[in-house]
Amino acid sequence: MPGFVGEEIEPVFEEAPALEKKTGAPSGFRLREREYKIQRVVKEWHEYNQSRPGGGWDAGRPPYAMRGVRNRGSWGQGKDFYRVLLDDGRLVDIYYDRRPKSGGDKGRKGRWVLFREIGDAQR
Fold it and tell me: Closest by alpha carbon to 26, among 75, 47, 37, 76?
């Protein structure tokens, strides 16, 4: 059923990515003990100039005044989105959040998220 999902996933790569923070789309992912294969990437986009969640000093600033643009690709900033076709025929959006996870053992790595389900590609 199409709609928002918002669950963290474990990416599966055929080959280890050369860059930890610029991985490209995975070949699949694991969610709730099930593995999904990605048939192909339909669309890719990047958002590097987002305001912090919940507002903050930059909330409400016009896009041309955002400071994140000059930090494009900087460590821990932005999200890399991928619209992918799964092996079961569904279209979904996943993203890599480049911000480091909080917590002692999480380290400096970001996280992968199944953002939303678009629907069946056959329709």
Answer: 37
Q: Name the maximum alpha-carbon separation found in the chain.
A: 45
CB < 8 Å & 24+ apart, contacts of 49-53: 49/78, 50/78, 50/79
Query: Out of 6-20, 35-49, 93-107, which region has the weakest mean confidence (pLDDT)?
Result: 93-107
Report how far residue 46's alpha carbon sits from residue 96's, in angstroms, rounded to the nearest whole number. Answer: 10
CA geometry: angle 62, 68, 69, nearest 5 deg: 85
Which of 102, 81, 100 lies closest to 92 in space, CA to CA? 81
CB 37 within 8 A of CB 49: no
pTM for this one? 0.73
